[in-house]
Amino acid sequence: MHSAKPAYDKLIFELSSPGRFAFSLPESDVPDGDPTTLLPREHLRASAAELPEVSEVDVVRHYSRLSQMNYGVDTHFYPLGSCTMKYNPKINEDMARLAGFARLHPLAPEAASQGALRLMHELARDLAEISGMDEVSLQPAAGAQGELAGVLMIRAYHLARGERRHKVLIPDSAHGTNPASTALAGFSIVELRSEAGGEVDLADLERNLDEDVAAFMITQPNTLGLFESKIHQITEMCHAKGVQVYMDGANFNAILGITRPGDLGFDVCHFNLHKTFTTPHGGGGPGSGPVGIKAHLAPFLPTPVVVKRPEPSADAYALDWSRPQSIGKLQAFWGNFGMLVRAYTYIRTMGPDGLRSVSENAVLNANYIMKRLEGDYDRATTGPCMHECVLSARRQKKLGVTAMDIAKRLLDLGFYAPTTYFPLIVEEALMIEPTETESKETLDQFCDAMIQIAREAETDQAVIHQAPLTTPVRRLDQTLAARQPILRWRQPQ
Amino acid sequence: MRYISNTPAQQKEMLAVIGASSIEDLLVRIPTKARLSRPLALPGAMAETDLVRHLQRLAGLNAGADDYACFLGAGSYDHAVPSPINHLISRGEFFTAYTPYQPEASQGTLRSIFEYQTMMAELTGMDVANASIYDGASSLAEAALMAHSVTGRDTLAISRGVNPLYRQVVETYVEGLGLKIKSAPLGDGVTDLDALGKTVSKHTAAVVIQYPNFFGCLEDVRAVADRAHEAGALLVVVADPINLGLLTPPGASGADIVVGEGQGLGVPMSFGGPNLGVFAAKQELVRRMPGRLVGATVDVDGQRGFVLTLQTREQHIRREKATSNICTNVALCALMATIYVAILGKRGLRKVGELSTAKAHYAARELAKIPGVRLRFGAPFFKEFALQVPKSPERVIKRLMKDRLLAGVPLKGFDRAYKDCLLVAVTEKRTKDEIDAYAAALRAAVA
Lengths: 493, 447
Hints:
The complex is a heterodimer. Chain A contains 16 helices and 13 strands. By secondary structure, chain A is α/β, with parallel strands linked by helices. In chain A, strand 8 and strand 9 (about 315-320) form a beta hairpin. In chain A, helix 3 (about 90-95) packs antiparallel against helix 11 (about 335-375) and helix 6 (about 145-160) packs across helix 7. The longest helix of chain A is centred in the last third of the chain and has 37 residues, at about 335-375. Chain B is an alpha/beta fold. Helices cover about 35% and strands about 15% of the residues of chain B. Chain B contains 14 helices and 15 strands. Chain B has helices at about 10-20, 25, 50-60, 85-90, 90-95, 105-125, 135-150, 165-175, 195-200, 220-230, 315-320, 330-370, 395-400, 430-445, and strands spanning about 70, 130, 155-160, 180-185, 205-210, 235-240, 255-260, 275-280, 295-300, 305-310, 375, 385-390, 405, 410, 420-425. In chain B, the strands form 4 sheets. Chain B has a 7-stranded mixed β-sheet with strand order 2-8-7-6-5-3-4, sandwiched between helices. In chain B, helix 6 (about 105-125) runs parallel beside helix 12. Chain B starts with 7 loop residues before the first helix and ends with a helix.
């Protein structure tokens, strides 16, 4: 049985002791430095901020212990669908921490930033080649911001042609960011049904394509793990009506070197460098969401654009701000550069054959899991899948065990959980993305655990409903958290 | 391929289980004409030793702050980063986890975010802070959108003292929704209150100022708050939390939303990203806030635990009706900031502010002694100031590079009115020797 007390239950504030400190700062070496004489009194804090007073060993031990309360890819199989939780190479980290990258100011003179600008220029060219797009902006900070940039470029494109198209079509299987980003760009959203097999329903698409439609936004492969096989037909239908086609690139890990969005007729696609290109997920970011476009959208790219000047010179690389039709800026500086260094390192490590092998093995691993589990869980689709498989726990639910229960039981068996209840169109969805970096042995252990849970659902539900028992805390009261939000620590009265 | 675990023999075994003869069989859904019929035209795979050499060479082409005394600011600052931060954030359990969707297996991340929210609320003087936005600029854009949704009004009054790069990002974000932006001019370095009054009306959703502002000057936040509130608008203040260990928190001066760039709190400059978008607000606005929030709760045994909460604001549930499109944020940068604030603590953060103030004011005094050089503005400033120079700022910068000094950010690109100015930032890291060397080099450069 679970012990009543968790191993560790402190917050940093609760370790505080007046007078203790961990910082090392020099004494002032300049004359006349009293802030009370240098700054008007009303600008000085009336009382010190209530921050912890702890020693360095307190800090190191506290955050080390907090880290031990997490599952990560480095410690656990993390089959979180749609998130591509692959291994994050350590060499990437060393390269991003090189002083010439990590301690470079974004407004250092261009002549003194040539290495950084060259890396960005090469990475953008690499991503353009990988996607079959003409140009790539590295500025978006994450996938959702890449979407916003893409949709704003589409908006600007239509406006420049004198067309006020106000609708965007999005399938019901889409990630939530798609409608959210689109609404932010001022469009209204029309949700399209998926056909029974899980692909875009062409008849429904045809019915909804009209001159008010600015774009059709789809995920390829889609969130059911299926490649949209009628993609050429889809992009042709859209283009015939002047509609731009946007690809959510969350699932790019399935298609590296196999097929390219640009060749399929997409006008825009974004990348998630934190998924496909091994930049770490960091507990929820930072990510990086570059956006690729076809040439007709190039005038609208976010500024500045990293360019290479034609003539050979010492300062060949530059930031080009002279794009009068640009949608503008998305973040203060040029992009999540630290993530760009990591992705660049990864692409150079892998080379073209390596990248193709990534996708082939991602697809192999997903199909292997699907095959091993299809006897015990319902499949959401038929035929082979791409890099992830979507199962349904509807069979288990009839017995009283939900997808959530299965997720919690997996934690006890030593695995992070798949994505649950997404895509929304699959009842009791379990979306499993193993990635190429996992071995057959790991996949077998995971499948054995899933099959064990399916048996337990039939014979021993208590062990599932009690789960998790081995984690630092057990199932948490979400309703209480939302009803009486406690969003910060306060000194007990 | 060293990052792919399966051996060819295992691949065969797996294909046999699947009932496929090759991986090609699994790709049947991809039509032939969709296939790329050639290898990707990318450079071949590099061995680690070659790749390291290549990247070291690229990094060596840049003027990093280890080799140059960095007086650059304008939204990214060369503050000292205590050693434990990199060690702790590099622990794989933090580094390689994702959004804490399964809270029982993510308490480390959730607890650290809860601590972060507390620290940011405390520093800004607000009730609640979220788990982070991408950077200060996008955080401000989110604040503008939130003010629009809270007030139902469609105009923003933004001071010209707000970082011009931030203003550009706001313009991008509000373009689609058709919000209008009015610019409030500066007087002598700070927002002209009378002129601001004329830009504010019953259509104003928010008044936006920066504290200290882009030029380093200290705005009268309370007076601006009064103007905003009289008109029924919200006051949004852009503030860098590292300064708020010493300076009056905007929350104490009437701000409704405080946003800002938290990069100074232990996050490397890294050529401008990733950064840390801080977002804090008053309690009554919490259900309109963008981004993730972590809340405290209990588990089935009554033990304290932490979860993502108030998620019905977010895109994965509310889709097009969400308060924001943000999903992945910058959790790891928030962790860096949390550890930074824990290390600096109550006294250290104040001391960082005091040292920055002392050194910036010393630098300003010394530089302004040089003939033809003067402070552009008379308003009180904190750790950054606009310096007018008698020669082309670009040439001054180039000249001082030779002395391993990054002299400042030329303001020409931001505002033609200040084309003869450099924006100079002085953090606690700069030494008297560096400042004296700067003064000597500038004296020679403009002579």
